[in-house]
Write a structure and sequence with these properties.
The chain contains five helices and nine strands. It is of the alpha+beta class.
């Protein structure tokens, strides 16, 4: 049996220097994401979403980034899920990307809003048919008796909508509007590089954090 306390790695792939980084965090993120995609690492758009419920207990789950621009970072899900309910009560969240093979982490914090209906409609219509039916079939985060419930519901909505299911009213996109970014690059001897960007009234303040 392996002793996990003895498991460690020396991070030596790259560096993150202020002079070599982008002044705008979105441009820095785009650069790193494109490098992650080019490296063909598994699911480079997978990110951890952290929310906080009314009981002040945090919860996390993996979602997939489906778009980003100057407005923010977008993903799609069931509005009635646990994360949807928590965001309805507390519209602040955090996202984290962990690109293990590149020894990089990106953390983003900010306020979350629903995307426009037209954007949710457009993305929903681009999904495979079984995924569109699945959005109707799954009462996400609710307790169900067995997988049979999902299969039965999928068959029901598949027969009802055939090839043209409309977007469910309880399903759509969210956008996190960043007010803080952090870029982490693993370095030797645990002296990692950490650059934080904080939103000011007119621009972004870039700071180095101790590892």
């Amino acid at each position: 049996m392996n002793n996990i306390a003895d498991m460690r790695k020396s991070y030596e792939r790259a560096a993150l220097d202020e002079n070599a980084s982008q002044a705008n965090p979105l441009q820095q993120f785009d650069q790193w994401l494109q490098e992650a995609i080019a490296s063909q690492i598994p699911e480079p758009n997978a990110m951890t979403l952290a929310t906080v419920g009314s009981n002040l207990r945090p919860s996390t789950r993996i979602v997939l980034l489906k778009g980003y621009d100057g407005k923010g970072l977008c993903w799609y899900t069931n509005y009635k899920s646990r994360k949807g309910k928590e965001l309805a009560g507390n519209p602040f969240a955090s996202l984290q990307f962990h690109w293990v093979e590149l020894e990089r982490v990106v953390r983003i914090e900010g306020r979350v809003e629903k995307v426009e209906d037209a954007q949710s409609d457009a993305y929903y219509s681009s999904r495979p048919l079984d995924s569109r039916i699945g959005a109707w079939a799954s009462p996400q985060s609710e307790v169900i008796d067995s997988r049979t419930v999902l299969v039965t519901q999928a068959a029901k909505y598949g027969a009802q909508f055939l090839l043209q299911p409309p977007r469910p009213p309880h399903w759509g996109g969210y956008r996190l509007i960043p007010d803080q970014w952090e870029f982490w690059q693993g370095r030797k001897s645990r002296l990692h590089d950490r650059l934080r960007y904080k939103k000011t009234n007119t621009d972004w303040l870039r700071e180095r954090l101790a590892p």
